[in-house]
Amino acid sequence: MTNNRSRLAFTAIEMVTVLTVMIILTGMAVPALMPSIRKARVNEGAEAITAIASQARALARGSAANDTQRYGVVVVNDAQGSWAAVTYGATASQATVLDAANGKRPLGANVTVTMPTAAHGWMYQNRSGMLYGTAPFEQVTVRSLDASAEGRYRKAVAVYYLGYSHAQDM
To answer: Going along the chain, which residue ranges are E strands?
Structure first.
């Protein structure tokens, strides 16, 4: 006698087969996505520096021309990680961060910044927004922290004498 009942569920072998295929596909996708994740982190850090620089320049352009205090940018690598902030004072340093409690903008996880000094900053001239008392341009390099040297992704943020900032792949 034949059983004409239709099947109402998947068998254990079918479930194990589907799960195995899903695990294999996931295992193939994760390594392919890691470079994109690293690149996004570096882009986020470079965009944060560019945004802080634009904010400081806008504040400087709105300041009085004879003011001895100037707006600037400081980029720091410390125990808290890499961060950037707008400064206001005679120099661009950690001591002159405009809003010390909330003004530090983190540059992202697993990202570091390469600079000439541990805390690197620049100032903008009041009213014009041009760089004040520095070289023709400043450059900060943002890079990912990978285990492999060839897998590192880098992006340079340049701030030109006219005060404009630009991020570019390296």
So the answer is: 70-78, 81-89, 105-106, 111-114, 119-124, 131-132, 137-144, 154-160, 165-169
Measured distance CA(20)–CA(99) in Å, rounded: 52
List, for residues 26-46, the tens digit of each pLDDT value: 999 888 888 888 888 888 888
Tokens standing for residue 140: 């900060």
Q: What is the pLDDT of residues 51-77, one digit of tens each?
A: 888 898 899 888 887 777 889 888 888
Token pair belonging to 42: 């570096």
- HSE-up of residue 88 (Cα within 13 Å, Cβ side): 12
Token pair 């760089």 in the structure block, residue: 131
For residue 78, the SS3 value is strand
